[in-house]
């Protein structure tokens, strides 16, 4: 039995090989978010952000999907693949932002604003998606809201992303729920300025879940995948990256000739660090796949209702 505390580099390689063999034997696909641990990313068939993973989940012909991400991502994979077995290596890995709004909250907003269209960030539960009109990710939110017919947008649950979209779609009225991503939103402009002072030649790339004051200091604002493209191809030799520190592994693989500077004094985790993402470990992936544990199960009516806003997003994006 492998445990994270006692695994050597040799143990890691051996366990990764066992996981890949199991996946082949069971016709399983392993999906992982960019914020996962490096050793987990290395055994994934596909690594991506929320939009990329949603697309991949909807296209797979595997019998089993092992989703290395937080709960709402696994639910999304189940919604677009209701007849497949979706496994979550750590069912306790939730998303604090997603927990900041309920389906009841959304229904109340719809009553208060009957002329509004509910735009749900993909970082929401299946129940919330089921009462929403369309889903978005940080990569496509602006473009999708621009395409909507409604002049009033009820944006849930992320206030930072909602305000970012509002800034780019000034002809619409916005009702924005006051949810947030703790690691992103709690990082301050003062800390960004400190990094800029330390590295005056660096460009600053920021995720739109960050506080508006931080976003104002950015040279580039975009989703995880968009930050990867910018940071690895821009003309600067140094890039200050204000998003989850797990992204550094992908950046270094894509272009090791640049320096990627991540904040190091963020909070008790030590950086812009998603503790729930990092709770998924290689041994947990192995045990989950080997014994087909932690299957994601959702009511049929929720799957049916939640699939509509997700598929509408995929069609428009």
TrEMBL record:
Q: What keywords tag this UniProt record?
A: 4Fe-4S, Coiled coil, Cytoplasm, Iron, Iron-sulfur, Metal-binding, Pyridine nucleotide biosynthesis, Transferase
Q: How is the cofactor bound?
A: Binds 1 [4Fe-4S] cluster per subunit.
Pathway membership, UniProt:
Cofactor biosynthesis; NAD(+) biosynthesis; quinolinate from iminoaspartate: step 1/1
Classification via Pfam families:
NadA
Q: Which residues bind [4Fe-4S] cluster?
A: 95, 181, 274
Substrates-to-products reaction catalysed? iminosuccinate + dihydroxyacetone phosphate = quinolinate + phosphate + 2 H2O + H(+)
- Identify the cofactor(s): [4Fe-4S] cluster
InterPro entries per record: NadA (IPR003473), NadA_sf (IPR036094), Quinolinate_synth_type2 (IPR023066)
Catalytic activity, EC: 2.5.1.72
Q: Which GO terms label this protein's molecular function in UniProt?
A: 4 iron, 4 sulfur cluster binding; metal ion binding; quinolinate synthetase A activity
For iminosuccinate, which residues are the binding ones?
Answer: 33, 50, 121-123, 138, 207-209, 224
GO biological process, alphabetically ordered: 'de novo' NAD+ biosynthetic process from L-aspartate
Annotated compartments = Cytoplasm
Q: Establish whether keyword Signal is in the entry.
A: no
| GO cellular component terms attached to this protein's record | cytosol
The answer to whether the entry has keyword Transferase is yes
Record PANTHER family: QUINOLINATE SYNTHASE, CHLOROPLASTIC (PTHR30573:SF0), QUINOLINATE SYNTHETASE A (PTHR30573)
Q: What is this protein for, i.e. what is its function?
A: Catalyzes the condensation of iminoaspartate with dihydroxyacetone phosphate to form quinolinate.
Q: Which NCBIfam families match?
A: nadA, PRK09375.1-2, PRK09375.1-4
Which family is it part of? Belongs to the quinolinate synthase family. Type 2 subfamily.
| Protein name as catalogued | Quinolinate synthase
């Amino acid at each position: 039995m492998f445990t994270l505390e006692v695994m050597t580099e040799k143990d890691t390689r051996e366990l990764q090989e066992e996981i890949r063999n199991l996946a082949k034997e069971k016709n399983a696909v392993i999906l992982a978010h960019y914020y996962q641990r490096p050793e987990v990313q290395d055994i994934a068939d596909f690594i991506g952000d929320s939009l990329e993973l949603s697309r991949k989940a909807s296209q797979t012909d595997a019998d089993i999907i092992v989703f290395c991400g937080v709960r709402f991502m696994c639910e999304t994979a189940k919604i677009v693949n209701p007849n497949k077995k979706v496994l979550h290596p750590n069912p306790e890995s939730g998303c604090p932002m997603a927990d900041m709004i309920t389906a009841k909250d959304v229904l109340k907003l719809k009553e208060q604003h009957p002329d509004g269209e509910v735009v749900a960030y993909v970082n929401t539960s299946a129940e919330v998606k089921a009462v929403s009109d369309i889903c978005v990710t940080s990569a496509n939110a602006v473009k999708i809201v621009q395409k909507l017919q409604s002049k009033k947008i009820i944006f849930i649950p992320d206030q930072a992303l909602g305000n970012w979209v509002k800034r780019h779609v000034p002809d619409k009225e916005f009702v924005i729920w006051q949810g947030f991503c703790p690691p992103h939103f709690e990082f301050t402009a003062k800390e960004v300025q400190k990094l800029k002072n330390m590295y005056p030649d660096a460009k600053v790339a920021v995720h739109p879940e960050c506080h508006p004051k931080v976003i104002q200091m950015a040279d580039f604002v975009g989703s995880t995948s968009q930050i990867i493209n910018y940071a690895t191809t821009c003309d600067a030799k140094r890039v200050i990256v204000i998003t989850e520190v797990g992204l550094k592994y992908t950046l270094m693989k894509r272009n090791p000739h640049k320096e990627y500077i991540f904040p190091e004094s963020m909070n008790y985790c030590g950086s812009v660090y998603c503790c729930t993402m990092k709770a998924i470990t290689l041994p947990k992936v192995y045990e989950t796949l080997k014994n087909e544990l932690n299957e994601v199960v959702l009511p049929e009516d929720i799957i049916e209702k939640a699939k509509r806003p997700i598929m509408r997003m995929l069609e428009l994006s």
